[in-house]
Amino acid sequence: MDERDLELIREELGRDPNATERAMFENMWSEHCAYRSTRHLLRQLPSEADHVIVGPGDDAAVVAIDDEWAVVVGIESHNHPSYVDPYNGAATGVGGIVRDVLSMGAFPIALLDPLRFGPLDGERVPYLVDGVVRGISDYGNRIGVPTVGGELEFDPSYERNPLVNVMCVGIVRRSEIVRGRADRPGDVLVLVGARTGRDGIGGAAFASEELGEESEEEDRPAVQIGDPFTERQLIIAIREAVERGLVKGCKDLGAAGLTCAATEMAADGGTGVEIDVFKVPLREEGMEPWEIMLSESQERMLLVVAPEDVDEVIEICRKYGLEASVVGRVTDDGYLTVKDGDDVIARVPAEFLADGAPEVEWEEEPYSYPENVDVPEPDPEDLVRSVLSSPNVSPALREWVYRQYDHEVQGRTVVKPGHDAAVMWLQHEGLEDVALALTTDSNPRHVLIDPKTGTEGCVAEALRNLATVGAEPLCLVDCLNFGSPENPRVYYQLRRSIEGLGKAAREFEVPVVGGNVSLYNEHEVDGPVNPTPVIGAVGVIRGLDYLEDFPREPEEGEAVIVLGETREELGGSLYLIEYHGIKGGKVPRVRYREERALHDLLRRIARKNMVSSVTDVSTGGLLAAVAELLGPVGASLSLSEVPNSVSRWDFLLLSESHGRAIVTTDRPDDVLGAAEEAGVPAQVVGEVTGDGVLRISVGPVDVSLDREELEELWRSPLHYLE
Questions:
Q1: Residues making up the binding site
Q2: Would you tell me which of 47, 97, 141, 290 could form a disulfide with 76, CB atoms 3.0–4.6 Å apart?
Q3: Distance (Å, rounded) from C-alpha 95 to C-alpha 298?
Q4: 56-72: per-residue pLDDT in tens?
């Protein structure tokens, strides 16, 4: 523990903290729990709106859908554990975010998993990919929550620090929302779920330091072990208790375990809590009180229950094969008191332990890359084959991942993985004609070159993806994955990225209702990961008739229309960084008026069934987008007709400018008319041929790929995994 922190604690307590207290402060005041480097930065994010019921600060955010129902959303990272033990690290990441949503009283209905790894030819990377995907699959499938979206990216910066983020979405009646607080002295604390063991002890501190050469072995005890069967029973039992009105407060036992859950409930409720570790069910003998308080054993939740309701809650839990034990009570003294039978083991002010960690502002080192770079003109065939065989644009590789997930359990998934956003039908009473659209997006290459502009683009892309399926945005969440804030260059990236997130959220008038900050994502050999702000977006769709026949595979004779202008913006693009090895150029800028106009247009043409299929243009530019949308069915395209202001054919093909989409339609005049009315540039660039051959003409270059050639390129990265 930092000596300055220790002195502050001594001053508050009037004495030296004992060993148990010191361990609790070390974890609660870690970067992972306390957000010491980012609290002051995150305050600038717009988080309020009329429909926001619970914003940042609780286990998950709650946003109104209508007067009766609300959506609950959270996002988390499990990066370090997934490097040390990819299977259990990823599985318990799923379990933790599901319990965060459950703790608000909600029933979890969907998961999304943005994943980032090193190059597939890296020594451990195939092992990491396989373990992480199996961990997510096994846990999510077994608890009955569909995994319906996410991302997959490969870059050298993630080779020894993969990023495993998980977003969960749930649904709850507004009358059944539960908060993570204990605000009534005399109420009882009930610990529900699995027994407490030594797995995960110190996980919060482990997540607040960089990885090293020995991490795989030395840090394995800090990784939790999951049990999806117990998690499934928890979901059922907690929901029944909530429906009966028996739960006054609820917290998941995640980072810092019982210490964090109890302390935050007391601090948020303006009360105190007393915990008796002797009453905590253990699965290992000889555990010390500090181990019990800091264990991060999975599938455990702490409930606040009125004394007269305790027996009923315990009976519900037993019905589903779960242990439930009274482990403490809510007091009015403002302290976290830890007892072992009659002995007081620790006693500290709850609010000071929860919120007293001093904020830190680190030194910054601003940097910039040259905007004007010399880009050699490539060989057309080599360029096309190189880009389309990249794992970062391969739909076959993404399909290899999501085919391992059960994305249809619960029977809600209307638009399935493989599209720009998933759509989940809500089904509940009063919501029969309402669905949610869900997506996650990030572009770390853009953010690396220009952290603020790049992050604005991440938000624009997430909202653009919602618009492709006809959804109006409800809210955003963020998962900010960065290196050590003690590195001045990283802290500059972090501050500028948050500025970009705030600007974009305000411009689009969409609140940022929650999120997660994951720092120290770096390895002592490789340095920090690329700055990776993952944006999760939730949209709402009211009126679902148009989804009966949308999106669908394009048919022969349909027109192909490109919407939006392509500009000479290649900074941070797949083309410059991956193909040429050039870090520089102009990062795509968000032009908010144009972007909003495109979103409105996309919603309109989707909802009025003017288009059969649609995709936005992002990583890999027009080349990757037309190949994925049209390659399997075949099309003949003249991309020189695209509205553009570029100077070369390769820039036109691979620019990653924002504000663009490609649609197929048998009503081209209607689409062009709607685009003109919206002020969005639009051009018919060809038609669907249905012969399985993709023909692209751009400037002096003609490219032709049949279905078999294209699938071979897409599948080429898979040999590392099969």
A1: 35, 76-80, 99-100, 224, 252, 296-298, 478, 515-516, 518
A2: 97
A3: 8
A4: 999 999 999 999 999 99
Facing residues of 108 across strands? Answer: 170
- Map tokens 């990066």 to a residue: 79
CA distance 722 to 715: 11
Residue 247 and residue 319 in contact, taking contact as beta carbons nearer than 8 Å? no
661 near 691, Cβ under 8 Å? no
Confidence grade of residue 1 (pLDDT, cut at 50, 70, 90): confident
- Per the annotation, the verdict on 658 as an active-site residue is no
Q: Which tokens in the block code for residue 697?
A: 């003409």
Residue at 677: amino acid letter? E
Structure tokens at 44: 């600038």
For 25-59, write each residue's pLDDT tens digit. Answer: 999 999 999 999 999 999 999 999 999 999 999 99
Q: Is 400 helix (H, G, I), strand (E, B) or coil?
A: helix
Binding-site positions for Mg(2+): 76, 100, 252, 516
- Number of H-type helices and E-type strands within the chain: 25, 28
Could you tell me where the DSSP H helices lie in 553-591?
A: 574
CA 279, 283, 288: angle at the middle one, nearest 5? 60
The pair of three-digit structure tokens given for residue 97, joined into one six-digit string: 């975010």
Q: Which residues are annotated as a binding site for ATP?
A: 35, 478, 515
Q: Which of 40, 51, 78, 446 is catalytic?
A: 78
Buried b (16+ CB within 10 A) or exposed e, 325-359: bbbbbbbeeebbbbbbeeeebbbbbbbbbbebbee
Whether the bond into 114 is cis, omega within 30 of 0: no
Here the tokens at position 363 are: 């030194």
Query: Residues forming the annotated binding site for substrate?
Result: 77-80, 99, 224, 296-298, 518
CA 57 to chain CA centroid, Å, is 17
Residue 520 per-residue DSSP state: -
Closest CA to 168 of 182, 183, 152, 149: 149
Each residue's pLDDT tens digit, 573-623: 999 999 999 999 999 999 999 999 999 999 999 999 999 999 999 999 999
Distance CA 310, CA 324 (A): 10
Instruction: Classify residue 362 by burial, with Cβ atoms within 10 Å: 0-12, 13-18, 19+.
Output: middle
**DSSP H/E element including 435:** strand 434-441
Domains of the chain: 1-34+178-357 (3.90.650.10), 48-177+394-547 (3.30.1330.10), 367-388+550-722 (3.90.650.10)
| Vertex 60 angle, CA 351 and 350, to 5° | 10
**How far is 308 from 438, CA to CA, in rounded Å?**
41
Write the CB contacts of 55 (distance below 8 Å, at least 6 apart in sequence). Answer: 47, 48, 61, 511, 513, 514
- pLDDT tens per residue, range 409-463: 999 999 999 999 999 999 888 999 999 999 999 999 999 999 999 999 999 999 9
The tokens for 676 are 């003109």
